[in-house]
Every structure is written in C-alpha cells, then in structure tokens.
C-alpha cells in the first residue's frame, strides 16, 4: 500500500503541468541577466555618490556579480537551436559542477526572490529588485513546466555549403556588332 501511495505521489509531482510551447527559462535567463547588469550599474552609482543606506548597494553589487556569473551561460533549448555566448564554457563548467543547485529552476526562483529583498529598501536599487522578482517568477513558470538547465552542446558538424571553386557562367558584357 505504501509503495502505491509513493508511486502516485511521484507521478503527481512529475506532472505538475504539461509541456509548454514557450520556453520560460530562456526568457527568464535573458531578463535576469539584464537585471544583473542594471543592478550592478545602479549599485556602483549609489556607492560613488554615497546615497543614504549606500551599504545596501555594496550588497547589490555583490548580488549583481553573482547573478551575472550564474546567468551568463545560456541553457540548451528543447529545439537544439541555442547559440552559446562568447566565453560561456567557463561559467557553464561551474554550473555543471554545482549540479542540482543551479540546474533546478525552482531553486533559482526561491533564491532570487530571497536575495532581492534587501535591495527593496534602497530607492536606487528598487527597480532592479522588482525586475529580479519578475525574472524569478518566470523561473517559477519554467519550474512548473519541468524545464531545467542543460549546457549548450557545441555543434559537431558544419552543414554549410562549401564555397564554389569557379564563378558561375555569365552573359558577356558587350556583344559584338553583327554585320547583317
């Protein structure tokens, strides 16, 4: 009896939602990466101008660096048409080594919401914090549709057409006058 209950619970967990035609993780990755850049810029400006509570901006800068490192590598898509970013293989190795902590989008959903909370107390970082919460919501949707991070596989074969060795035939530019 206990094994059937466990099997039923596992089947219920596996089928949270059926697959979606939208790859939410792709949109969340782009959104959160851009949020990391904006949070970093706003935090640097807050530190330079010594706004009130500028110590939170130091946290925001460290959070922005963490976000950029985690979000820089693109995930492989279902349709296998993802193109890797330049120098993506180095942070991608880090994400692969960390395993389920970075592969699971539900963990990213929870972590990004919790990490964005201190930034809500500083006026210059409130917009990136709200944007990070929105990106975390997109990761939550990706988790509901059972998406997970997979590294982009390098292309093994090149399907391009080789360059021609001789030019195509063309009509002559000048026609010889006919003596008719």
From TrEMBL:
Tagged with keyword Cell inner membrane: no
Spans annotated as Disordered: 155-180
Places the protein is found: Cell membrane
Membrane spanning stretches: 32-50, 56-73, 105-123
Main subcellular location: membrane
Keyword hit for Cell membrane: yes
Pfam short name (any one): Cytochrom_B558a
Keywords: Cell membrane, Membrane, Transmembrane, Transmembrane helix
GO molecular function, one term: heme binding
InterPro entries named in the record: Cyt_b558_asu
A GO cellular component entry from the record: plasma membrane
Family of this protein: Belongs to the p22phox family.
Subunit structure: Component of the phagocyte NADPH oxidase core complex/cytochrome b558 complex, composed of CYBB (heavy chain (beta)) and CYBA (light chain (alpha)). Component of the phagocyte NADPH oxidase complex composed of an obligatory core heterodimer formed by the membrane proteins CYBA and CYBB and the cytosolic regulatory subunits NCF1/p47-phox, NCF2/p67-phox, NCF4/p40-phox and the small GTPase RAC1 or RAC2. Interacts with NCF1 (via SH3 domain). Interacts with SH3PXD2A. Interacts with DUOX1, DUOX2 and TPO. Interacts with NOX4; this interaction mediates superoxide generation.
Protein name per the record: Cytochrome b-245 light chain
Taxonomic placement: Eukaryota, Metazoa, Spiralia, Gnathifera, Rotifera
């Amino acid at each position: 009896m206990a094994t059937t209950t466990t099997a039923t619970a596992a089947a219920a967990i596996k089928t949270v939602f059926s697959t979606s035609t939208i790859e939410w993780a792709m949109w969340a990755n782009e959104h959160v990466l851009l949020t990391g850049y904006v949070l970093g810029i706003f935090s640097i400006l807050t530190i330079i101008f010594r706004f009130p509570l500028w110590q939170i901006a130091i946290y925001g800068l460290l959070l922005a660096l963490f976000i950029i490192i985690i979000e820089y590598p693109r995930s492989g898509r279902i349709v296998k048409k993802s193109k890797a970013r330049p120098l993506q293989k180095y942070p991608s190795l880090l994400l692969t080594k960390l395993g389920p902590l970075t592969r699971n989008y539900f963990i990213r959903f929870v972590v990004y919401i919790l990490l964005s909370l201190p930034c809500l107390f500083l006026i210059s970082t409130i917009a990136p914090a709200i944007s990070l919460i929105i990106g975390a919501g997109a990761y939550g949707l990706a988790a509901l549709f059972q998406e997970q991070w997979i590294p982009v596989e390098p292309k093994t074969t090149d399907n391009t057409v080789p360059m021609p060795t001789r030019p195509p035939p063309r009509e002559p530019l000048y026609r010889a006058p006919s003596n008719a």
